[in-house]
Amino acid sequence: MLPPQATPFLLTLAISTLIGIGLREYYEQEGKRDTFGTVRTFIFLGLLGLMLYRIPVIGAYAFLVGLVVVGPFLLVYYNNKVSQQKSPGLIGVLIALLTYSVGPVVIHEPHWYLVAFAVTILFVLHSKGRIRQFTDRLETGEVVTACKFLAIAGVILPLIPAVPPTEGWAGRLFSILPVGPHQIWMAVVVTTAISYLGYVLQTYLYPKKGLLLTGLIGGLYSSTMTVLVISKKTRGHEHQAREAAAAIMLSTPTMYLRILFLVAAFMPIGAIRLLPPFLLFSALSGAYAWWLRRSATEIPEPEEAGEVEVKERNPLELNAALLFALMFVTVSLVTKFVLLRFHELGLRMLSFLVGASDIVPFIVSVLQGNLGIGSSQVLQAILIATASNNVMKTAYVFAFGHRQTARLTAIGMAGIVALSFLYAAFTL
Q1: Percent of residues in the chain assigned helix, strand, coil, to nearest 5
Q2: Which residues contact 28 (CB under 8 A, 6 or more apart)?
Q3: Is 101 within 8 Å of 71 (Cβ atoms)?
Q4: Whole-structure pTM value
Q5: What residues does 209 pair with on adjacent strands?
Q6: Distance from C-alpha of 327 to C-alpha of 321, rounded to nearest angstrom
């Protein structure tokens, strides 16, 4: 067994070496020869920070003294390069300071934090083009919207009481509702965060993409919207029928992934129970999509049909969040009424009917609606709702897409829908 002092030393050595190698590769890709230091330089910086910080009693002060020495040295180096009419950039200097701080991070933080620290440095270092592309496409309104989400999740949510009020008009209101104010806002935060991830992927990272990537990413944001867009865009292009059907089928795995994240946020045990069927349905959908794409006829495609752009308005606008909250409360009330009036059979019927629209408010309402039903009934309702939604998406393809695309989609969806009902009836 290694002595306790060995682990921080080896970790610091490894991380400093990786950072040095990563910076060297960055300089080589950029074609820069006159650079700051070598791999050994960053190893020495990392070990220096660790050694100074490990000095008994005065370690923290010694580390700060070292920083006071290293910092001006780096500043002098940068100033000399600038005076020589060279443009070294601040990358090397900044990464040198980060490498110097690896030692204290190793000592005080868990290992996953250290790994995330190093991975983030290397990822950002080698993502210059992607980051520049992202920032160039970023609109001012998006920054404002991101700030709104931070306020929604980090400011408003902690201020909302976890226990519903019991007095006054608010008490009377929440005595009727099956959910409290904190649950309502938590539902808004979780669902909009997942939707926003899909929105960012579609809008900024992959603004114009092929059909298959559209389906794969689109399911994370809204599989129903993705199906409608693909169906309309490819309706007049018969040669794309099989590829369009494959793209539609690929929206299914990411839809299940999104729902699985929702379930995990409110019912972790339920997510574990849903994982096997969702993996099965995703595998079947992916395999069928692969077969469709492989058997598609390779025909030159018109320029306007070769790419599909799915661009929706930002799902994190305040009005959208408030609309979801209203939908969530409404669906919760309807679900509670149906359960009281028609019991579990009514819940199954309702879960089938909501598939014609967005199923997320319904899923969230049964997950945290305090409806007095067991976890098995909740998971059955979710499975039925997803199956119903797949049926409706198939109907949308028949209504707006090419006939062959609709037939191929129906074949793939039929198996998944049938298995969903069977799993809900006999397994859960």
Answers
A1: 80, 0, 20
A2: none
A3: no
A4: 0.61
A5: 308
A6: 10
